[in-house]
Amino acid sequence: SDELKSKKIVLVSGPDNDRRANSAFLMCAYMLLAFNLTPEEAYRPIADIAYTFEPYRDAGYGPATYFITIKHCLQGLYKAIKTGLLDIETLDVEEYEYYEKVEHGDLNWITKKFIAFASPKESPTTHGMYPYDNQGNMGNLLQSDINSTSQQWFRNTKDVKMGNNKILYPANTVDGIVKYFKENGVTCVVRLNNKLYDNRKFIEAGINHYEFYFPDGTIPPDNILFRFFDLCETSP
To answer: Are strands 160-161 and 115-116 parallel, antiparallel or unpaired?
Structure first.
């Protein structure tokens, strides 16, 4: 902003290596976006201390088999800009910050053709919202815990009207995400995880629905991989 042009901004992250890594990436990403630097140019000021930053990894709890560095992230950001996958000028920040929250669907556009999203649920008692054992019985929960979870779920099942009259849908529910998909021209949904919703609502809305289940956190077998590739090539 004009107010800050003549000022120096100090970013304080604290001593934790993971927080320092996040702060370093934010600074480098800003340099890349605001001053059109290459990943290498944006990364150069921190290159000598990069070994102290915690690398990124997948969201699993087991031992990590690969790591992603700040430089990798900058290279990905640069590639997204150059290929037109990301345009800061047209990015709807309000919509992004709404849908990226878990309670609103954990939804992100990967490319202009692909959306990644968490499985929607029919109700707060659907498997996955409360803990169930292998026989499908609800785990030991206090009634207060159940009530609290239910209240939170129902609070997030209403459409939200933004200042520009744009409607944001509760993508944590099947009805909400169907509305969003229809509005954005989505023609196909692939379910990769356990069945937490009735797929008929997608089908009735004219959205094709496929089951390509494989255990979460594992590599999909070749037959699922090639079926997915075929679907990507043939779906509009």
So the answer is: unpaired
Question: What token pair was written down for 108?
Answer: 């992100």
| SS3 category, 116 | strand
Domains and CATH numbers, the chain: 10-82 (3.90.190.10), 94-234 (3.90.190.10)
Q: Which residues of the chain have pLDDT under 70?
A: 1, 123-159, 161-164
Q: What is the pTM of this model?
A: 0.72
Query: What residue has token string 């929250």?
Result: 101
Runs of H (alpha helix) within the chain: 17-35, 39-43, 70-82, 93-99, 143-155, 174-183, 200-204, 222-234
Any residues with CB less than 8 A from the CB of 5 and at least 6 apart, and which? none
Q: What is the pLDDT of residue 218?
A: 83
